[in-house]
Amino acid sequence: MSLSLVWDGRPHFFESRSKRGGAVHHNARLVKRVQSHIHLVCFEVLGAEPIHYAILKVARNADEIDALEKEAFLYENQLKSIRGKYVPEYYGIYHGEVRGSQVACMLLEYCVGERIPSDERNRKIMLAACAVHAAGLEHCDLLSGHNLIMSGKDVKIVDFGNAIPHRCHNGTPTLHPGRGGRLDGCRELMDLEAAYGVFSGNAFPEPTPFTMNPFAEGNPFHVFARRVVDMIKP
Ligand SMILES: [Zn+2]
User: Half-sphere exposure of 67 toward its Cβ, with a 13 Å CA cutoff?
Assistant: First the structure.
């Protein structure tokens, strides 16, 4: 795969080191800078209107290129099954030269969000976070919220530059222990649950026998409550 990118009015040629994708070639043009390393580009067909927008993430020195290659590896492997649903679609990483310097750039889906109610947004944040953990990664920079973006009516998680391999023991999207779950299983999901989960915005209810009905079916505290009731039995 290769990419011709019009940058500063001049075409630059980038090549993918992956053998997958065969001889596919893309023409793209820089539309605008979004952040220091993030640009909006459009793919073009000769003589036609722009047909497709994408996000171009650029690395300009050895450390940045190394980090971008690691992130691309995650999109190609651990995140592959949830791309386009809980993380952006990924179109490849390309290497080339701009003004005599080595540059790498990664093409990702351009996401345009819609407004949805905040409780629904929070629910989708937890689903996306749990999906990333189930895929085997801890993101390590989700609480600030700036790596959570809207894509249509869905939430997608971006920027896996700090992500680490992770075996999650607590992928249930609420804080209750569940059947066989562990309250101390996963710090990132527990922190997210406090910020975006079903009790966000409210004081987290204390697990006392006065605040829960251990016999209610469907009560997320059902199992937890039963344990507390067991504890206070004479
Ligand atoms: Zn986890």
Answer: 14
In this structure, are 11 and 103 located in the same domain?
A: yes
Q: How far is the CA of 129 from the centre of ligand 1 (A)?
A: 8
Which CATH number goes with the domain that contains 45? 3.30.200.20
Q: Is beta strand 90-98 parallel, antiparallel or unpaired with respect to 137-138?
A: unpaired
The answer to whether the predicted template modeling score (pTM) of the entire model surpasses 0.85 is no
> Which residues are close to ligand 1, an ion, with C-beta < 5 A?
133, 168, 186, 189
Q: Which structural domain, as residue segments, surrounds residue 14?
A: 2-109
CATH number of domain containing 126 = 1.10.510
Alpha helix (H) ranges present in 18-83?
Answer: 62-76
Judgement on whether residues 134 and 73 belong to the same structural domain of the protein: no
Span from the CA of 190 to the centroid of ligand 1 (angstroms):
9
pLDDT digits (tens, 9 = 90+) for 113-130: 999 998 899 999 999 999
What are the tens digits of pLDDT across the range 30-64?
Answer: 889 998 899 999 876 555 665 689 999 999 999 99
Strands (E), 8-125: 10-15, 25-35, 38-43, 52-59, 90-98, 101-109
Here the tokens at position 227 are 């344990």
